[in-house]
Amino acid sequence: MTPPLTRVFAHHEVENTGSAARDFCMLERNLLSHLKLALLLSLLSSSLILRARLVPDPTDHSSEIESKASLPLASVQLAAALVTIVAGYWEYESGCRDLRSMTAFLVGVKPHLALMSVVVAAIFATCIVLLAGH
């Protein structure tokens, strides 16, 4: 029995036939895109907690809705960032597994779509709340 970390970081050699290299690069690019989105969501979460603005307004009178909603919205954005990381890792692992077993993997993965739909809903709800505060 191999230790769990050995299985995670094990080296798997896949024969480079057809589009295997291109498909692996696509999987890596998608994982990095998910990580970039998670970083942006965590940055948004931090800016909501700190009430930071890109362009500071000296006559800033934060609305009551925005000040009351900043901590819950920041929590939602942080949760969305974590869900994005999980969804990206899920897609990467399932794609690599399919690549190793030489099966088609370009079909939509339903758990990934469901997780990313939750992230989109969180982003959309945040936009509505922040726009309603202005």
Automatic annotation (TrEMBL):
<feature type="transmembrane region" description="Helical">
    <location>
        <begin position="31"/>
        <end position="50"/>
    </location>
</feature>
<feature type="transmembrane region" description="Helical">
    <location>
        <begin position="112"/>
        <end position="132"/>
    </location>
</feature>
<dbReference type="InterPro" id="IPR052053">
    <property type="entry name" value="IM_YidH-like"/>
</dbReference>
<keyword id="KW-0812">Transmembrane</keyword>
<keyword id="KW-1133">Transmembrane helix</keyword>
<feature type="transmembrane region" description="Helical">
    <location>
        <begin position="71"/>
        <end position="92"/>
    </location>
</feature>
<keyword id="KW-0472">Membrane</keyword>
<protein>
    <recommendedName>
        <fullName>DUF202 domain-containing protein</fullName>
    </recommendedName>
</protein>
